[in-house]
Amino acid sequence: MKTFDQLSVIGLREWINLPELGMVGLRAKIDTGASTSTLHASDIQPFKRDGGDWVRFTAHLGTLVQRRHRCEAPLVTVKTIRSSNGQAQSRYVIRTLLTLGDRTWPVEFTLACRKTMRYRVLLGSKALIKGQLVVNPALTYVQDKPVLISPPTTGAA
């Protein structure tokens, strides 16, 4: 059996932070079947700032207690995503820092309505590859809950 010493093990669900958006203590579901990560958002409004494309949105956090957090982030692109049931949908894509355990790296998120889903954040395979992570689906919350080390520098509203 081969081992991969440079890779960290995570479970099927993990605690994450999105520090540039000022969001801490989010429960994320790991979805190796999705290539792109997704963040539950509503009231999505594209706008211009200093000649660049940006997007303003309301992020929805928590499942039992609903919390809303207004965010702004540079717009990376608009992407057509095909869901597991075959429906195509255009989604805005942002890139922001993600903290999981003691690691922080940039991840692209599509913004989509996930109000009927248990988890408001999905981490797809591209984020796992870039973070050098492997998933043990028999485990949950393997990594310590990250803390917000410094105040957000960009993207918070």
UniProtKB/TrEMBL annotation:
Residues 9-146 form the Retropepsin-like aspartic endopeptidase domain. InterPro entries: Asp_endopeptidase, Peptidase_aspartic_dom_sf. SUPFAM superfamilies: Acid proteases. PANTHER family: ATP-DEPENDENT ZINC PROTEASE DOMAIN-CONTAINING PROTEIN-RELATED, ZN_PROTEASE DOMAIN-CONTAINING PROTEIN. This is Retropepsin-like aspartic endopeptidase domain-containing protein. The lineage of its organism: Bacteria, Pseudomonadati, Pseudomonadota, Gammaproteobacteria, Pseudomonadales.
